[in-house]
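A student in our group prepared the protein record below, which I am reviewing. I have pasted the whole thing underneath without changing anything:
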Amino acid sequence: MTPRMKKPIKATKGSRNVFADLGLPHPEQELLKARLTLQIYRIIKERGLTQVEAGKILGIQQPHVSLLMRNRSGTFSVERLMDFLTALGQDVEITVRPTRKQHGAMFVVVE
């Protein structure tokens, strides 16, 4: 290596869940919450809603909308996030089916 070249960076291929890769508790639930929160964010942005307007629709105060818009869904349950989506005029569908793996997985599909 020449003096200008830096050492190559070693990378490890992660799973499909960054929360599991970080070793956080309940990684599937955290990923689900993150995906639901992202969808809420997208809808609010697409509609051009202010945080106050979004709060009125969701039934929460503006500071809580601010947290959602910054992907800070930790204070909200999955059920509450799904309620927010229905308040925004979205259908939320939960599908349960057998898995071939030892443990099942949770997915959010956005149309």
Q: What stands out?
A: The first helix runs from residue 18 to 21.
